[in-house]
Amino acid sequence: MTWRPRLVALDIDGTLTGVGSNDVPPAVKAAITRAAEHGAHVVLCTGRSLIGITEIAPQLPVSLALCSNGAVWWDPALGEVTKRVTFDPGPTIKALQALLPGAVFATERTGVGNLSLGEFLPGDLWGETRQATFEEMAVPTSRLVMRWLDRTPAELSFAVKDLELPGVEWSVDHTEAWLTAVPPNVSKGTALDELCASLGIRPADALAIGDGSNDVEMLTWAGRGVAMGQAPAHVQAVADEVAPTVLEDGAARVLNRYFPG
Q1: pTM above the 0.90 mark?
Q2: Which residues neighbour 127 within 8 Å (Cβ) at sequence distance 6 or greater?
Q3: Domain 7-84+186-258 -> CATH class
Q4: Which residues contact 242 (CB under 8 A, 6 or more apart)?
Q5: What is the pLDDT of residue 261?
């Protein structure tokens, strides 16, 4: 193995852990630790809000966390947000309400929790959640999430197949009837490109591992993009490689090739 990545970009849910879990398996922790010991920058790249990584990040030797699909940057060494991009979620909420009756919405309060329009399911949201009016929701935020209650991911994907949402970047989840919207021109890929430019690292020297639709830009940007074994077909199709599943510690198996013990 002659190539060794200088930066390792890692999704969380479905890549390092089971969806919604904060338990990083020992084999995955060990592999990430070896990558850092070999000098690689380890970057968490997640759709989770900042409050959603507070139990994950301390377990790992993380250089930076790109949260909310790249809209919020958090430096663990400084213990603070170093970049935050926002957008007006009001028009997006209105458009989705008209298309998806019964949908519920939440906007991120960075580092705190969420404002919620409607009741989410238990465990859906990280941090403190406060019920709010539409007017309270329609203020700048870094992340808007929507769950279509009592619907399947396939039903949501079909309903939004021709949807246009000006002024935001958005993706749908492959495990829940869930949509995430962030500011325009923001994605895990664009955030990583900006970060690597500041570090003097070429995309060709980056390894990215992920499993969801919001990982597509990251996987195509990186010199080596790896999709997890349970990732949907369209995500696997853009990857350079398909790893074993998250239940098989697939991320660890990939990292162990480049950073052997």
Answers
A1: yes
A2: 49, 51, 52, 109, 111, 112, 113, 114
A3: alpha beta
A4: 226, 227, 228, 229, 231, 236
A5: 81
